[in-house]
Amino acid sequence: MNQKQTTPHGAGRGDTSIVLADAKESITPEHKTAIPGRPTSERLSRTLAALANGGELSNRQISKISGQLNGPDIIHRLRKLGWVIHCRLVTVVDRDGKRSHPGRWRLDQTHLSIAREMVSEHDGGDAA
Fold first, then answer.
1. pLDDT for 91-116, tens place per residue?
2. Calpha distance 27→83 (Å, rounded)
3. 0.85 cut: is pTM over it?
4. How many CB atoms lie within 10 A of CB 99?
5. Which of 8, 9, 31, 37 suits a disulfide with 81, CB 3.0-4.6 Å?
């Protein structure tokens, strides 16, 4: 079932986005419970820290946070470390009237506390 929502786009106007029906998840329960690896670069650490806040990030946001223009590659590299990251595709209309389906990434609920602990340790905070 598709649902409509308004997403800010362009110069102060809102465009209607359609959330595409979720595909079946191919993640097995053991993947969700395994402890993922630590980020292997500052780019991955910054992205994981942003995802640990619990919200969704667009490709543009990931690029800005990580400092790398290829957001999907950052997500791929985090997934290879064992992080479960979901992608929600939305339909948007660009300024030329063309439909596009950008992704919005979020960290799986089961990994949020692990990510927050790793981020806290990386930043020198007390994880306890």
1. 999 999 999 999 999 999 999 999 99
2. 11
3. no
4. 9
5. 37
